[in-house]
Design a protein that fits this description.
Helix content is about 30%, strand content about 20%. It is an alpha+beta fold.
Length: about 475
């Protein structure tokens, strides 16, 4: 019997697990994927929003501003990449300046500090490649960028260090009410629990509607992106937005914490909750809209494209509460942008709600800090030499594009919730995220995975499930 079962090991589920692990509770996390951060949380803009977009008084606004304020200290505690680079919202017409003013006032009501409107001359001093069409901009210095994988994995690892059980490849098929709480049925196992946290992303409505007569609906909102090579990562210095429209903040251009340039997303509502394919139409839309913001945008340096899905709730509001007709069932639903920014605050809120229900005692031995994977590139040459003497694996480069060593991959495999797939290694170390997109390093990474997990190469996957990388030998196909 668990005290709390969390459905979903994305960023909000992992944040809730970490915050709840401060208490003397038996906690489990059920994830249908083969790893943490394998759903909605893995494909987004990596933006830490300042908090001027959400409607004043909304839960979305509150969680955004609180999450933003928590991010810097959390990045130091859990050792993930975060930079407060500031954001700019561009206005292209003088007659739209009142909309920019409205956005500024909205941000001030939400508690966003130090936001200001700057005109074209000052704007071009801050961003030399900004479009000449831009007549003004809202500048929010508290805006930032974060590694979405790094944040999610750090939260989950720290939760595991504090005793949380993670179960992967566990797709929830049914939830039943029981005398003591709930019975959660997966394909091969039944879990008993007093409470459930529903952090299932685009599937949160499915699980809510299993236990409640008050139905909700989550729409998968598809967003397509370009990722550009690190050689052009300094083309802009801030996150560049356009004035928001019906579907949000529109196409953005931003540096990433790893030195790339990210462009996107589109916003298209779809029925397929697994619809993560890119389209020619979507990529054309991204390019067309992005060049309005930034001049000389180097789209010839695209190294990959991808699609993310946002969990859009019809009321465009976060749902974080105990379900009225399902006691002990807590929703964490409709977590679309700014969900990544809000996740730390959402985790705190969920932990507070559950603790008010179960009244647990706090642990005296909670481990608040976690150390990430050692990056030898951040060491001096002498320090790296000494490291290689102690562990020769740090002297073997596996991924040439990103200079990832065998030592880093071994660390990714053997740490808490270690990587078991090619994408699991990629998200933890960036091996395969460079210009060649795994073209050279994938075979060697597979050899390491096979050796360390003691499984045949034929059983290795790109991202779990049926995504096997090898299907036989070339002689078999002749």
């Amino acid at each position: 019997m668990y005290d709390v079962l969390i459905i979903g090991a994305g960023v909000c589920g992992s944040a809730a697990a970490r915050e709840l692990s401060r208490y003397q509770l038996k906690i489990g996390v059920l994830e249908k994927g083969e790893d943490v951060c394998s759903g909605t949380s893995k494909a987004n803009s990596g933006i830490v929003h300042a908090g001027f977009d959400a409607k004043p008084g909304s839960l979305m606004a509150e969680m955004n501003v609180k999450g933003n304020a928590m991010m810097e200290e959390l990045s130091k505690e859990l050792d993930f990449s975060f930079e407060r680079i500031g954001s700019l919202v561009l206005c292209f017409q003088e007659e739209d300046l009142d909309k920019l003013e409205d956005l500024k006032h909205q941000g001030e009501k939400n508690g966003v500090p130090d936001i200001q409107i700057i005109r074209q001359e000052a704007l071009r001093e801050m961003e030399p490649n900004i479009s000449h069409e831009a007549v003004a901009s809202l500048y929010a210095p508290t805006g930032g960028i974060v590694c979405p994988f790094g944040l999610n994995i750090a939260l989950a690892e720290n939760a595991a260090m504090n005793g949380v059980d993670f179960f992967f490849d566990k797709e929830v098929e049914r939830i039943e009410k029981s005398e003591e709480g709930y019975r959660v049925i997966t394909g091969d196992q039944v879990f008993e629990t007093k409470c459930i946290i529903n952090a299932a992303g685009v599937y949160a409505d499915v699980f809510h509607n299993m236990v409640s007569e008050q139905k909700i609906h989550i729409t998968a909102r598809k967003g397509e992106y370009y990722l550009l090579d690190r050689s052009v990562g300094d083309h802009v210095n801030h996150t560049i937005f356009q004035l928001p429209g019906k579907y949000g903040k529109g196409v953005l251009v931003t540096p990433t914490v790893h030195g790339n340039l990210l462009v996107g997303p589109t916003a298209k509502d779809i029925e397929n909750k697994e619809g993560t394919n890119t389209t020619a139409e979507g990529m054309e839309e991204v390019a067309k809209k992005a060049v309005r913001s930034v001049e000389g945008l180097p789209l010839r340096q695209v190294i990959t494209s991808f699609t993310g899905l946002r969990a859009h709730e019809e009321g465009h509001e976060f749902i974080i509460e105990e379900v009225k007709d399902a006691p002990g069932f807590f929703d964490c639903a409709g977590i679309e942008s700014p969900g990544l920014t809000s996740a730390p605050a959402i985790g705190v809120r969920l932990a507070e709600l559950v603790s008010q229900k179960l009244h647990p005692e706090k642990k005296e031995d909670f481990i608040s800090k976690r150390k990430g994977i050692l990056n030898p590139q951040k060491l001096s040459r002498e320090e790296w030499r000494e490291l290689v003497k102690e562990n020769p694996a740090y002297g073997t480069i596996i991924c040439r594009c990103e200079s990832v060593t065998e030592g880093e991959i071994l660390d990714a495999i053997h740490r808490p919730l270690g990587a078991r797939s090619l994408d699991g290694v990629k998200r933890r170390t960036r091996a395969g995220m460079g210009r060649c997109q795994s073209g050279f390093c994938a075979p060697k990474t597979m050899e390491i995975l096979s050796r360390e997990w003691k499984i045949p190469m034929e059983e290795l996957t790109k991202a779990g499930g049926n995504s096997k990388l090898l299907v036989g030998t070339t002689k078999d196909s002749l």
